[in-house]
Amino acid sequence: MEERPETELISIPATPRASTPEILTPSGQRSPRPASKEAKSSTAWTPTSFISPRFLSPIGTPMKRVLINMKGYLEEVGHLTKLNPQDAWLPITESRNGNAHYAAFHNLNAGVGFQALVLPVAFAFLGWSWGILSLTIAYCWQLYTLWILVQLHEAVPGKRYNRYVELAQAAFGERLGLWLALFPTVYLSAGTATALILIGGETMKLFFQIVCGPLCSSNPLTTVEWYLVFTSLCIVLSQLPNLNSIAGLSLIGAITAITYSTMVWVLSVSQQRPPTISYEPLSLPSFSASVFSVMNALGIVAFAFRGHNLAMEIQATMPSTFKHPAHVPMWKGAKVAYFFIALCLFPVAIGGFWAYGNLMPSGGILNALYGFHSHDIPRGLLAMTFLLVVFNCLSSFQIYSMPVFDSFEASYTTRTNRPCSIWVRSGFRVFYGFISFFIGVALPFLSSLAGLLGGLTLPVTFAYPCFMWVLIKKPSKYSFNWYFNWILGWLGIAFSLAFSIGGVWSMVNSGLKLKFFKPPN
């Protein structure tokens, strides 16, 4: 065997201008590390200080590279994160290559949807002043609690809270946190899926009527059959394996939401207003009925700001190191997303109420546009608006169903200690889709359901994050930060109870007991 020349075994001494090679971290990010004069002048000992050019000079080049890479890795990580091996089998944490763009897509898809279409219904009960004020306060409040959730994702060194329930357990305790967070988060996912089936199926029916026109057959599909068609499409799309794999769908959902939200309020404002329009809040026969209606309307406003139950899950799809923590790209994406959310929600609420006043039907601005102006707007433009709503509902169904899929698979993998096969995974998603369909058939009341959902799930968005910040971050007792978060948290709980009562009253007052077992035609 031929010996190497002696010159190859001698390493080149480091010079002040030399720089450490790029380090490829486990997350796939390259981190160049130029030599620092301050670092060289420092005499403080560190765990990697023995890996110096003086120490490495007698060592061959391959070993030198290994030790330098190890030094860069230790400096890059800074701490060891304990990973649960089961996370690699679950759809939320199966892929961790997310970025700020994915965060913006997911947050925008989750934050804008059918709930924006019923905001003018709330304004019909609240009027101009209280409607705009409540919408503005809710927007600022939920943006603050979203920032809290983003910061708490890695509040404890070496631990990532990948799901909302995990963070609640860390703050409130294992058992109490599970009871407080599991029901509203699962209810929010399942209730949103049910409402998406309602609005998606009804919109598909209206789209077919607009496109087909007088050429429709004498036996068109019933509303329930359109629900079934929409559910089947949702089940097909739900076969995508994990949260990062639906980033493209979230982008489509975000684009369609912005487009149809803009089209709906522009088309409504551009048409002539009804002659009998009024902007006075709807008056009801009794004081108690008026109070409950206002509570239900505020619940609709609260439900417009959904998506906080997905914040931890979205952030869990991103790589995180000590130098590049996940909260930085997550907050960048969230800020962009909520800028566009504001551009969608406020014009729809204000423009819709300006166009229809208290004549707004309970189904929202989309029903008002079709009912008042179906003959005034070109049929192609109206059909495009309804088709965009369908696409958005299909995309939103996927991201809101992902935590439920994750729960199903977590139970399975815990019992069997192995990942779900493709057949088991598909079976879970088909089962969930049809369960949501049957609930949608039994509860076809969109605006009342939105108010109740807003009341029951309000703590997830407005209350729990404030409590979690105090319990995990432990600000100084009796400081402004301490008082501020405790007051916001308890206000959120009080509003949740009031809005839930208003939502139940609205459902009962709408004749739910008489219609519960009678599906629509």
From TrEMBL:
Annotated localization: Endomembrane system
Annotated Pfam families: Aa_trans
GO CC, any one term: membrane
Domain of life the protein comes from: Eukaryota
Oxidoreductase among keywords: no
Main location class: membrane
Statement: the UniProt record of this protein carries the keyword Nucleotidyltransferase: no
Topology term for the membrane: Multi-pass membrane protein
Region Disordered: start-end pairs: 1-45
Ranges of residues in domain Amino acid transporter transmembrane: 97-508
Transmembrane segments: 108-130, 136-156, 176-199, 247-267, 287-305, 336-357, 377-401, 422-443, 449-471, 483-508
GO molecular function, one term: symporter activity
Keywords recorded for this protein, A-Z: Amino-acid transport, Auxin signaling pathway, Membrane, Symport, Transmembrane, Transmembrane helix, Transport
Biological processes per GO annotation: amino acid transmembrane transport; auxin-activated signaling pathway
Family membership noted in the UniProt record: Belongs to the amino acid/polyamine transporter 2 family. Amino acid/auxin permease (AAAP) (TC 2.A.18.1) subfamily.
PANTHER family for this protein: OS05G0424000 PROTEIN-RELATED
Record function comment: Carrier protein involved in proton-driven auxin influx. Mediates the formation of auxin gradient from developing leaves (site of auxin biosynthesis) to tips by contributing to the loading of auxin in vascular tissues and facilitating acropetal (base to tip) auxin transport within inner tissues of the root apex, and basipetal (tip to base) auxin transport within outer tissues of the root apex. May be involved in lateral roots and nodules formation.
Protein name, per record: Amino acid transporter transmembrane domain-containing protein
